[in-house]
């Protein structure tokens, strides 16, 4: 070993970002293993790597004892005092045992161990770096694809894009630049594995954060996202500042902000609706662009409702293959049943009858209460006496 070795370690640290100390520790461990293997030495071996000169020294560590039982592990007190009069029983003394041909043997034996440690260190660095990007968005370059995955180059690692995470309206070609959502990062036995997605709903959140400064700053909040990747999405937004229009801010001047997101998603339609604390209003907004006449909630299940729309807008409210209603249900987390006004006429008549009956009952109770309030104490006593006599006569019969 020489200064060339030190220069190589410095270059490795600069190129791979691996600390020189990590490599030196791996080197020393490998040299101990090499010495034991080739020279049959016991476990009392230490290797010292001189970081200034690049030289390696091998030491046999022996314990000072009164009587030597194993010359490889122990040294007598008499011999130790000849080296240094200060030695006592139990002290450890290092004797240099570096063989002349040890450099060649060490280089051959330690090569694989050093490479393994370097790979492990690289994997740890890459995992720590990309785990910080989990749940975030990155830009990559499409490298290649097979039956299972599309491989996206993110710089230091190749991420995998599975079929279910791909957008059905996209065709990926090598060297295409795409933005991907890092869904998860795993540290496997083969090294770090990064899984990315183009269909994840949170990809929309990150794209809005990039295109809309108010969303990034928190002035406009994305409450929920419902997405059918490559076709259509609905995004519910609200403003934390009363002076800011949440929907208009996300759309941008002449629709520039939302159009940039649509272009990135290859023409995926985008509905931006305003979130409201009142679930009825929120559901009506979610069914945009159709009009909503009424929202009737199920008394037994508050998460289920019937939405009444004009007859001529029924197909618009349901959407192509039920898409509009399905996305609205996901966005609001409600089960939505859409009915036209004509079918709801009978329902409204029954409700009106129930209301009328309830009003009649309320009036009767109210009138009876007024009559009873007008009676004097003597009249109450007379009514009570007549009721008792009536009861007795009924029993006699």
UniProtKB/TrEMBL annotation:
<dbReference type="InterPro" id="IPR004087">
    <property type="entry name" value="KH_dom"/>
</dbReference>
<dbReference type="InterPro" id="IPR030842">
    <property type="entry name" value="TF_NusA_bacterial"/>
</dbReference>
<keyword id="KW-0963">Cytoplasm</keyword>
<dbReference type="InterPro" id="IPR003029">
    <property type="entry name" value="S1_domain"/>
</dbReference>
<comment type="subunit">
    <text>Monomer. Binds directly to the core enzyme of the DNA-dependent RNA polymerase and to nascent RNA.</text>
</comment>
<dbReference type="Pfam" id="PF00575">
    <property type="entry name" value="S1"/>
</dbReference>
<dbReference type="InterPro" id="IPR012340">
    <property type="entry name" value="NA-bd_OB-fold"/>
</dbReference>
<keyword id="KW-0805">Transcription regulation</keyword>
<dbReference type="InterPro" id="IPR025249">
    <property type="entry name" value="TF_NusA_KH_1st"/>
</dbReference>
<dbReference type="GO" id="GO:0006353">
    <property type="term" value="P:DNA-templated transcription termination"/>
</dbReference>
<dbReference type="GO" id="GO:0005829">
    <property type="term" value="C:cytosol"/>
</dbReference>
<dbReference type="InterPro" id="IPR036555">
    <property type="entry name" value="NusA_N_sf"/>
</dbReference>
<dbReference type="Pfam" id="PF26594">
    <property type="entry name" value="KH_NusA_2nd"/>
</dbReference>
<dbReference type="InterPro" id="IPR010213">
    <property type="entry name" value="TF_NusA"/>
</dbReference>
<keyword id="KW-0694">RNA-binding</keyword>
<dbReference type="Pfam" id="PF13184">
    <property type="entry name" value="KH_NusA_1st"/>
</dbReference>
<dbReference type="InterPro" id="IPR058582">
    <property type="entry name" value="KH_NusA_2nd"/>
</dbReference>
<comment type="function">
    <text>Participates in both transcription termination and antitermination.</text>
</comment>
<feature type="domain" description="K Homology">
    <location>
        <begin position="229"/>
        <end position="301"/>
    </location>
</feature>
<protein>
    <recommendedName>
        <fullName>Transcription termination/antitermination protein NusA</fullName>
    </recommendedName>
</protein>
<dbReference type="GO" id="GO:0031564">
    <property type="term" value="P:transcription antitermination"/>
</dbReference>
<dbReference type="GO" id="GO:0003723">
    <property type="term" value="F:RNA binding"/>
</dbReference>
<comment type="similarity">
    <text>Belongs to the NusA family.</text>
</comment>
<dbReference type="InterPro" id="IPR015946">
    <property type="entry name" value="KH_dom-like_a/b"/>
</dbReference>
<keyword id="KW-0806">Transcription termination</keyword>
<dbReference type="Pfam" id="PF08529">
    <property type="entry name" value="NusA_N"/>
</dbReference>
<keyword id="KW-0804">Transcription</keyword>
<dbReference type="InterPro" id="IPR009019">
    <property type="entry name" value="KH_sf_prok-type"/>
</dbReference>
<dbReference type="GO" id="GO:0003700">
    <property type="term" value="F:DNA-binding transcription factor activity"/>
</dbReference>
<keyword id="KW-0889">Transcription antitermination</keyword>
<feature type="domain" description="S1 motif">
    <location>
        <begin position="133"/>
        <end position="199"/>
    </location>
</feature>
<feature type="domain" description="K Homology">
    <location>
        <begin position="302"/>
        <end position="359"/>
    </location>
</feature>
<dbReference type="InterPro" id="IPR013735">
    <property type="entry name" value="TF_NusA_N"/>
</dbReference>
